[in-house]
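In the laboratory, one determines a bound structure by crystallizing the protein with its ligand and collecting diffraction data. In a computational setting the workflow is compressed into a single prediction: the sequence and the ligand go in, and a structural description comes out. We illustrate the idea with 1-deoxymannojirimycin.
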Amino acid sequence: MIRKRIALVGLGVSLGFFVTFAVQRWNQSREDAHAREMSERVKTEFLHAWNNYERYAWGHDALKPLSKTPHDWYGQSLLMTPVDALDTLIVMKLGAEAGKARELITTELSFDRDIYVKNFEITIRLLGGLLSGYQLTGDKRLLTLAEDLGNRLLPAFESPTGLPYVYINLRTGQVRDPISNPAETGTLLLEFGTLSKLTGKPIFYDKAKRALVETYKRRSPIGLVGSSINVETGAWIDPDSHISGGIDSYYEYLWKCWILFGDKDCLEMSNASMPAVHKYLADEVRGELWYGHANMSTGQRTETTYGALDAFFPALLAFSGDLPRARRLQASSFKMWNLHGIEPEVIDYKTMRATALTYHLRPEIVESTYYLHHYTRDPEYRRMGETIFNDFVKHCRVDSGYAALQNVVTKEKRDEMESFALAETFKYFYLLFASPDALDFDKIVFNTEAHPLRRE
Ligand code: DMJ
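The predicted complex, in structure-token form:
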């Protein structure tokens, strides 16, 4: 009798397990099917942006999506959008479009131009895009272009401190504008270092590493860096410290240089810098985690602002193993996004009011959602990404592509579709929903423009 009861209980337990397992499998396959649908939707929307670039701005830097006219940053085209978008086309397996973009780049792109360009932007978008394009296709012409560009940018580092000038003339090598910032002096090593690896010429790595180290060496006694610095004297011009635009990717490259190149100096610099960021910039408000501004010397709070650019930080926290902070800060970024159903450039997190009302199609919040999903596999992050994507399409899609917003409250549009929307925003949306083998995360490191660079 007892035996029979035990057997029945055993059967009940196994049946219970079986049912739970079956329900879990069922839920999982429904979630997977939905994610696949989402990745297809992202691809369709990306193509809407790309096809309109092709239609109205082919061969130029960017499309102005409201006037349907092309835009060139420096009066002549450096093919900003095709170079920035090439690896997105490849990752999305859009072979015909990728082939056409590659042909345009390899036959038309020339850096022999008498124009002053921004060293930082050209490095992260063009050098990064050419290098990842080469690594994904094996097309040597892309590497040749990257090396030519790298050589032309090298004179930018010829300042008394080794910190690069802001602008450089691509033909003459003349430099101008000595007032720079940590993001621009410290976000070059992934690209220059990869160029060294691929060409066997150490000069690129050495120059960019020195610039990163010289920035780090000038941190204050409490461990913070400021917002602007004179590359000729090494003196800080603005002591405001934060993780926002102008500093942001400096912290990103300290960590990523360790992961990509195994450079222990980078690990040490990163480990020595992050505690000060958490101590002086992190802010607890209403039980939420935010990062604001502080004076680099005293650590005194100067502003309680956070914005679209700061939203990269959960990705970096997750990447460097700090999931608890990453999750909490991502929740804050999402709260910022939901304030107006799309993200303002800057908010005051104390009052929860937007202080800069534009939205530039920025990727950072999507990037962090993707990293968090990658590390936790928590379905919450795909749900979050779906909300963000739906809002993005609802408010930014126009007949001829995707348009930035002039005002996130009124949803008035701007005649602007930055190349990073195609390099980063759509790529991170896609990777968030695509199957993990669309791109093997552990084999690459994304530069700050979402160009995947190979680890080995
Ligand atoms: C991009 O060019 C890069 O992500 C950069 O690091 C910061 N700003 C834009 C996107 O917002």
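Residues 403 and 417 are 5 Å apart (CA to CA). Keep in mind that any predicted model is a hypothesis to be tested, not a measurement.
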